[in-house]
Amino acid sequence: MKKNILEKTGKVLSTVAKAAVLIEVNSTCPFAVYQPKLPESVEKMRKK
Description:
Order of helices and strands: HH
Number of helices: 2
Distance between the termini: 43 Å
Number of strands: 0
């Protein structure tokens, strides 16, 4: 039972994290001072 709940929670969290990355990879930092460098694995998700 506990393992089943952890698996479902993990899948949901993974989906939410991936959605957040897809939104953020195609946007820029609103502050002109600092724009962090994205990892190569995230750069591959960028829309062209």
